[in-house]
Amino acid sequence: MNRLTFFLLAALMLCALSLVSAQHQARTLFVALERAQAEEKQLDIDWSRLQYQQSSLSKSARIADSARAQLKMSPALAGRTQYLQGVVLPTTPPDAGKPAGGADK
After folding, report:
1. For residue 40, what are the domain limits?
2. pTM greater than 0.90
3. Residue 42 domain-assigned?
4. What's the rounded Cα separation, in Å, for the pair 41 and 33?
5. What is the pLDDT at residue 84?
6. pLDDT tens-digit series, residues 36-95
7. Where does the record place it (predicted)?
8. With bands split at pLDDT 50, 70 and 90, how would you rate the model's confidence at 103?
9. What is the greatest pairwise CA distance in the chain?
10. Under a CB-based contact definition with an 8 Å cutoff, are residues 74 and 68 in contact?
11. CA dist 12 to 15, 18, 22, 25, 96, Å?
12. Does residue 3 lie in a domain region?
């Protein structure tokens, strides 16, 4: 009976240590999950803020103001515009790409 009692006591101790270890691991994983969810919320907030900034920075009025103020650009006026005449290539007749013989194969 002493052996059986010792064996059951050892099994009870191992089960208790296993339970404590499992509880600790569960708490550790829960804390990591909470941190990840908080980080996800913060990243979502940052993403929304960046999208708003991008939309406000890409408005044409802001771009035009920035071009005038920082780059000292001015809009093109009709009197200052110079038009260049380029070389005009001859156009090919519509039936020039068809093979000789008149029938498409």
Report:
1. 31-73
2. no
3. yes
4. 12
5. 79
6. 999 999 999 999 999 998 888 778 777 788 788 888 888 778 888 877 788 777 787 766
7. Cell inner membrane; Cell membrane
8. low
9. 113
10. yes
11. 5, 10, 15, 20, 95
12. no
Domain count for the chain:
1
Tokens representing residue 17 in the block? 């240590």
Q: Specify the amino acid at residue 55.
A: S
Q: What is the pLDDT of residues 11-35, one digit of tens each?
A: 999 999 999 999 999 999 999 999 9
Structural domain contains residue 46: yes
- Whether residue 105 contacts residue 99, with contact meaning beta carbons closer than 8 Å, is answered with yes
- DSSP collapsed to 3 states, 66-101: HHHHCCCCCCCCHHHCCCCCCCCCCCCCCCCCCCCC
